[in-house]
Design goal:
The chain is of the alpha+beta class and 180 residues long. Helices cover 17% and strands 29% of the residues. The chain is built from three helices and ten strands; from the N terminus they run αααββββββββββ. It is elongated, with a radius of gyration of 20 Å.
Length: 180
Amino acid sequence: MNFKALTARFALMVACGLMTATPAMAQFWQCAPYARQISGIEIRGNANTWWSQAAGHYARGHAPKVGAVLAFTATNRMRLGHVAMVSEVVSDREVLLTHANWSHRGGIERDVRAIDVSPGGDWSMVKVWYGPQGDLGTSAYPTSGFIYSDHAPAGDDAVEQQTKAPIVLASLDMGTTVSF
């Protein structure tokens, strides 16, 4: 093989690699880092540890508030738990959640429906919108409760606040952020 052929083959391989490269803004999100970024709740680690880590640092309760994070407990199907931020309170038994890695691996979902299906109305068991079904999922998931961020009022007297918390997206370009 001569130098020209080798160069052409190398150029073809590089071009093919560039065509299949993932854009810089596409990111695989796990629920915990995404919830931390959009809620401002500075807890690290797996989602199933958030509830206990929040004790003594953040107010916790069983009433939804905009900006609060709903902490799902670990189950056999969801070993590391899950966390999702409340983006809107619809009623005392329905909220909209913004979260990552639920319906689609690594994907972000904004303003998806979640309902309280607990017998006592304490948000200890929920059903959440599942994209592939286009409806609430068939499973109910146990939760520990809500962790209130600094910009979500603490306590269990929930439903009166219904303004949306800002979503802040980090930009890879020069460290700027965009809020909307």
